[in-house]
Amino acid sequence: MLNEVYNRRIIELAGTIPRIGRLPNPDASATALSKLCGSTVTIDLKMDGDTVTDFAHEVKACALGQASSSIMARNIVGTKASELRALREIVRKMLKENGAPPQTGKWAEIGVIEPVRDYKARHASTMLTFDAVVDAIVQIEKKRGAEPAAS
Fold it and tell me: Deepest in the core among 31, 55, 78, 103, taking most CB within 10 A?
């Protein structure tokens, strides 16, 4: 059972996380914490308008949190805020409501974490990076005086 969750690709992603560290002058930073396991992800984000231009993160999480963070770091630059909000909702629904993962495009690899659905205790650590990114986007929008979109 757990072999499905901790499959070879999850382990590969967890072991090769890009964009580790912190940005010198981020537009916003956010930390997400899993109270259940103590995993944390802290992200730094820079945006030009509603598009991500730079990203870095510190990941202190289990393999699932690391894999999710790895997927995020590989694909986030060049992504619009609305797409990242939608992505968080897609992943949440995938885990909690039997929703489908993205089937095509740069986020399709998220499907590798779909087996986590059956392990409720692992949902929070898997969602950390998505929650932190949306938190940072909201902070940036507030700083700019924009009305944050519904999160």
Answer: 55
Alpha helices for the chain (secondary structure H): 2-5, 8-15, 63-75, 81-96, 123-143
Segments of the chain scoring below 50 in pLDDT: none
- Per-residue model confidence (pLDDT) at position 36: 86
CA dihedral 65, 67, 88, 109 (to 10 degrees): -160
* Angle value at C-alpha 104, between 69 and 15, nearest 5 degrees: 25
Helix, coil or strand: residue 66: helix
The structure's pTM equals: 0.92
| CA atoms of 139 and 128, how far apart (whole Å) | 17
Which residue has 């938190």 as its token pair? 135
